[in-house]
Design brief:
20% of the residues lie in helices and 22% in strands. It is an alpha+beta fold. The strands form two sheets. A three-stranded antiparallel β-sheet has the order 3-4-5, with no helix packed on it. Strands 1-2 form a two-stranded antiparallel ribbon.
Length: 93
């Protein structure tokens, strides 16, 4: 039920303008979960969609330009947006 938000490095916060905010509110937390598509991120890991079906390299989430994140193979075989199906047993396009 607690959300920590910010960029403050708690071990070296002297002379910086970084902030850290703590919110203890389940409604605020639910809102952030929805905005950041965290359910999609966690669901993919639960379904073991972490290996590329082409080269067997790691598939990772990366910060997106128009969405919170997108998926890509670390070897560059494919990228996919949130909500698109994970490629299986075929060369992704």
């Amino acid at each position: 039920d607690t959300l920590w938000l910010g960029s403050l490095n708690t071990l070296s916060h002297r002379d910086t303008q970084e902030i850290m905010e703590r919110r203890q509110n389940s409604d605020v937390l639910k809102h952030y979960i929805q905005i950041l598509c965290l359910d999609d991120l966690l669901r993919a890991k639960d379904q073991t969609e972490d290996r590329c079906s082409v080269c067997n390299s790691e598939v990772v989430a990366d910060e997106g330009r128009d969405q919170p994140f997108y998926w890509h193979c670390v070897e560059g075989c494919f990228t996919r947006s949130i909500g698109r199906p994970f490629p299986r047993d075929e060369v992704p396009t």
